[in-house]
């Protein structure tokens, strides 16, 4: 992916090798009223990339075209890969993290396993300087995995708070 941004194939290799991997195992019990309950509220992942395995359909993403929620089809044994906020920051918005949520159903318990890959706890992810110039202002503030954890301790994503929104620079701060 860094190669596709013109940054070369090894741009993040050292930092990713020293990076963090978080495994989130989500269990959504059967729900008698799935229309009235949500498994996991809408969010984008803080990571660079997330790799997800789901036991049955239930992952939904917003379609950037019409903004509506769309179910992600589940093909037995396949993995979904999401772009996270930190890749959006690195790419100065050329890659966009995806808003997604986990839904419940009345028939069976659903399990999903998400593997979130990021830089190390205190390593700041900022926009690649190579992607900033007179025509392309730097749109994001830098942040670390720890910054995300601090955000999570102080904010409720169930109330619609988003980490990414804290990373967007004010227009007059852009360089
Ligand atoms: O259950 C799902 O499909 C989504 C899980 C998820 O978004 C997460 O763990 O960050
Ligand atoms: Fe997620």
TrEMBL record:
Residues 19-119 form the Fe2OG dioxygenase domain. The keyword Transcription does not apply. InterPro entries: IPNS-like_FE2OG_OXY (IPR044861), IPNS-like_sf (IPR027443), Oxoglu/Fe-dep_dioxygenase_dom (IPR005123), Plant_2OG-oxidoreductases (IPR050295). Keywords: Iron, Metal-binding, Vitamin C. It holds the Pfam family 2OG-FeII_Oxy. This is Fe2OG dioxygenase domain-containing protein. It comes from Hevea brasiliensis (Para rubber tree).
